[in-house]
Every structure is written in C-alpha cells, then in structure tokens.
Amino acid sequence: MSAAPQRVRIREVGPRDGFQNEPEVISTDDKVRLIELLGATGLTRMELTSFVRADVIAQLSDAAQVLSRAELPDTVAVSVLVPNERGLDAALEHVDRIDDVSVFLSASQTHNAKNVNRTVEESLDGLSRVIPRAREAGLRVTGVIATSFGCPYEGRVDPDRVFAIAGRLVAHGAQEIGFGDTTGMANPRQVRAFFQAAAIALGGGDEIELTAHFHNTRGQGLANVLAALDAGCRSFESSFGELGGCPVPAGATGNIATEDLVSMLEEMGIATGIDLPAMLTAAREAQRILGRPLGSHTLTAGPVDWQAARPAQPAQPA
Amino acid sequence: MSAAPQRVRIREVGPRDGFQNEPEVISTDDKVRLIELLGATGLTRMELTSFVRADVIAQLSDAAQVLSRAELPDTVAVSVLVPNERGLDAALEHVDRIDDVSVFLSASQTHNAKNVNRTVEESLDGLSRVIPRAREAGLRVTGVIATSFGCPYEGRVDPDRVFAIAGRLVAHGAQEIGFGDTTGMANPRQVRAFFQAAAIALGGGDEIELTAHFHNTRGQGLANVLAALDAGCRSFESSFGELGGCPVPAGATGNIATEDLVSMLEEMGIATGIDLPAMLTAAREAQRILGRPLGSHTLTAGPVDWQAARPAQPAQPA
User: Which residue range(s) make up the domain with A207?
Assistant: First the structure.
C-alpha cells in the first residue's frame, strides 16, 4: 500500500446529488440554510445544484436562486453540474457565484443512453464544446464518469475504456476526473487495482486530479475509500446524511455519508479540514427537514470520543 | 499489505449477539427456524446462544431448548457463550450439541466492571478454571476480549495490554482469541497496526487463531475488515441482518452484517463458503419476524449482479 496521506480533499455533493433524489420538494429556504450550515464546516468544495431542465428534475429548478442566495465563505469552491451546453449557458449567467462546473457521462453505453439518451460518442462530442467554453469563462472543470466500476445494465466495465474516456475529457480541458461507482458495484480489490492503473494511465493525480465517488449500496463505501487511499487517491466526493445516490436498485442507499467519511479519515490521522460536530449539525438539520432517519451512522452514534465517560451500561461483550 | 487470502472463516453470531439485543422476546420456534436457515447457508461456525442467568438476559433463557431443537449440518461448529463456571456447567449438560465455547472479558477495567462486576484480574482468575474444564470436556475454546480497540469509559486501550490478556487466555487453553471493537471505536489504520502487532505477539494465527469482531457503529466496519485482512487476519465474526451489537451509544447499530461481509469478500475473490442468496433469505426472514427494517445494506440492494439487465432507470450520474 502507499503511505497514508496527511490530507485529502472532500467535495460535498449533498445539495445537488442528495437533494435531487428527494421525492418531496425541499424549499429554497431550507436548501440555503443547509448549504450555509455545510459552508460552516470547513468544507472547501461543494456542489450546490445542477442546471437541468425543470421538467427533468423539478427539485433543482431553483438552481439560480440557490446559487444567488447561499452565502458561503470565500474558501469554498462552488461547483454546479451541467448536463449540456444549455445547462452551461444557464450556469454562466451566474459565473460570479461559481468556481467549478462538473460535466458527466457514463462509461457504459446502456447507462448513458438511459441517463441522457445519447451514445457515449455523442456525449463526448457535446462535452468537446461544453468543457472549452467553461474553461474560457474561467471555470475549473471536472469530468464525471458514471458506472466507472460496473454498470447495472452491462455488468463489467473495462477500466481501459474508462481511462480512454477520461483522456478524452482531459484533452478537452477537464482538470479533474471523477470516477463514479453509480450503483455501488465496486469492491476494494477492484478499486485498488483501478486507481493504481488510473495513476499510470492518467498521470497519478499530479496534473489531473483523480476523484473517487463511491456509493454505500452494499455497505462497502468506506472500504472502497480505504482501498482508493491505498492506491494513492487523494480526492473524494460524499454527501451529508448519506443523502442521495442512485435509485438503482430500488430502495438502495446511495452516496457515502460525509460525516462517516470524515470520522474515519480523521480517526486515521488524515486531515479533511472538516469539523465533524459542525457536519453533524448540518446532517441533523437535514434529518429534521426531511422528517425521516437518514442513513449516516455517525449521525446516530456521534463521533468517537476517546475521553468520554458515558453513562449507559452495555450488557455483554464483543 | 499482505496478499489477500483465498479463503476466510466467518462465525455467525446473530443467534446470540443479535437476538440478545432485541427488546421483544423472540419465540424459540422463530429462533430455531432462523438458526436452521442460517445452517443452510454454508456457514461452518455459528454461536447459537449463551448460558446466562435468565434474570440477566431473559431473551436467551431458552438456551437449552434452542440447542437441543436446532437441526444443523454436521459441518457447522456450534458454539455457545458462557460467562462463568455456572454457565459452563449448564452448557456441559448439552455437550453433545456443542463444539466450542466462547468466554469473555473486557480489556478495560471500567467496561469489565460494568459488564460483569469484576476486575479484569478476577475475570482472568475465573477463566483459569472455566477454560481448562471446557477443554477437558473436549470443547474448543475461544477467548473474546471486549473493548480491544477502545473503551467508551476509558478511551484508549493499550494493544500490549490486550495481547497480555490474550496470552493469559492462551496459557489457560484458549485456541482462538476474538478481539471485539465493542462500541465501534476502531479505525482502519489502528486495526492494521493492531493485527500486525498481534501476529508478532501471539504467533500470527498459525497456532492460535486470531479473530476480528468489528461493529459498524460509525460505518467503518467493512473498512476495518479490509485493514485486518491486509494485516493477515483470516477469521471474522458478524451477524446476519446487522442484528445486535452494543447499545452504547444509544441507538447505534452494532455488528457488521454477515451478508455485507460476504458480499464484499466474495466480490474480492475471497471465498467464504457462504451462499449469499441463502444468507439473504435468512436475513429477510429475521426482518419479517422482527417487523422492522434491518441495517444490512445488501439485504436492501441485493447482491451485485454482473450479468443483470435491470428495468429501473436512474436519473443522473455518479
């Protein structure tokens, strides 16, 4: 394994990826309050919303209001997801509130077709226009590749195919590539090999940042983070409260919870820059607003407290 | 990291550790049915119950009936937990139905005092009689050390202290040592160092089997399994449906789910001998009997299906 890093970067994607998967519309006021709570945690990267057609994702139809109203520290790099040139046009109307844009496609043809009704080639062709325009506007660009570790429709996805797509995105100007385990199919052995190979294929993250986006669909999310860390990955995406993710399979949990990720990394002595109690405050408020228990474990258990003297008495061992 | 193993051993502890933490009494009929479903999964190790005073844990007061009624394949090594000599006496009345006994104490004085109202020395003194008597009766003995990775009352626990206690148990005749992360305080970096040191202190598992018992209290359970695997650990305990664990902190989830563990290991190419669909059948039946959603992720998501063509359509990437 590679030596554990001193510090990793975390992008909070809950306000986009989390909110968009909520069946009930969250008010713009509530979104802004949650985003500002997240902004007070020490996070330096947040994906705030997506400029998509309201008839596709009604939940994010307030993208412009969210962007213009949320007050965040200058230390937070704000990103938005844009699906195409029209989305980019809408985002560029708020270019003074945005630092990064994320663009996306799927590594597998079937997932891409079902998701955006295009072939992978057609998506890459569109991105060959979107990425340079975003760069020209002074924005940093992340290219996200969904189903990088497996496709629920096609099964195995060849890592070399994923790296080839990543190379195309880099050639168009993307400065960061996010690898999405969209339906939580990845396992740690696969992840370790994937990021070792990605470092060779794409330059080890020295020039192009390589980011892991894992889901906790089968409980392996943090184990996959550990494997990626071992293979040199230093950048992760997660969602507070374990919000969001992919609704395939139905009922499955999605993203890894930011507070569980922060708890693990900080306990390992790896700095995240994120204040865990502040993150739990944001997740707790999300739980209150959404009115149901969220999947985050640390939200229930609280941080590890090595100095604690707790009152309750456990019954039996191990 | 050490090379990943071809195979690991898993002991299912749900019928003891899981059931004992259920607030509503489970009927003996239901317990026997669940145990027999577990027995049909390929499991070779199951902890079926505990011989404790009924006024301490009413849920397990049917230990004798469970043991005598459950029909399991000959390939399953049946273990029971005994807290003391009186418990061993009760277990020995069913010695023909038992292969192993597990005995326990805590590494930390405060947890041991709260759990069994003894000092660690007093517990070790008692076990110096229990373990040899169990061995003389032809039983295999596992010594379980709770709070091996941290104590909710005392905080840090010195690994050397844990290994010293393990050495005492081995000297009394224990053939396996289980290290319990009783309230889910362990992190992967700590776990890796712990099992590397344990292998040196206790002989690397060649003669004395070293078993990891992790909790998923803060979502790190499977990451800790991965770290232990990397450090050479080849034996794990888990609980179907993510049942059980420790009620500290209040509301926290406990054991790692056997089906999540099996899913991860088998996906990594590490054989468990356990049939995942059969394990999901057992967990699903537990969920039905208990009447609430269980914490297991794979129970919701289903196994990874690399050949699948799923009908649902995900909305957006990553």
Answer: 9-301
Which pairing describes strands B100-106 and B140-146: parallel, antiparallel, or unpaired? parallel
Q: What angle do CA A255, A258, A260 make, to 5 degrees?
A: 100
Nearest to B249 among A184, A220, A302 (CB): A302
Q: Which of B226, B250, B315 sits opposite A227 (nearest CB)?
A: B226
Does residue B51 lie in a domain region? Answer: yes
* pLDDT averages per 10-residue partition of chain A, 318 residues: 83 96 95 98 98 92 97 98 97 97 97 95 98 98 97 94 98 98 95 97 83 96 98 97 78 88 98 98 97 92 78 44
Asked whether A113 and A90 are in contact (CB, 8 A), the reply is no
CATH of the domain at B210: 3.20.20.70
B258 within some domain: yes
In a domain, B1, yes or no: no
Closest Cα in chain B, distance from residue A294 (Å): 12
Q: Which residues of A touch B253 (CB under 8 A)?
A: 297, 300-301
- Chain A neighbors of B230, CB-CB under 8 A: 1
Tell me which chain A residue has its CA closest to the CA of residue B215. A318
Overall domain count for chain B: 1
Q: Which amino acid is at B209?
A: E
For residues B143 and B124, the answer to whether their CB atoms sit within 8 Å is no
ipTM: 0.94
- Candidates B218, B258, B305, partner chain A, best to mutate (most A CBs within 10 A): B218
Q: Count of CB atoms within 10 A of residue B206's CB?
A: 9
pTM over 0.90: yes
Q: Are β-strands B77-81 and B45-50 bridged in parallel, bridged antiparallel, or unpaired?
A: parallel
Q: Is residue A174 part of a domain?
A: yes
A238: β partners: A12
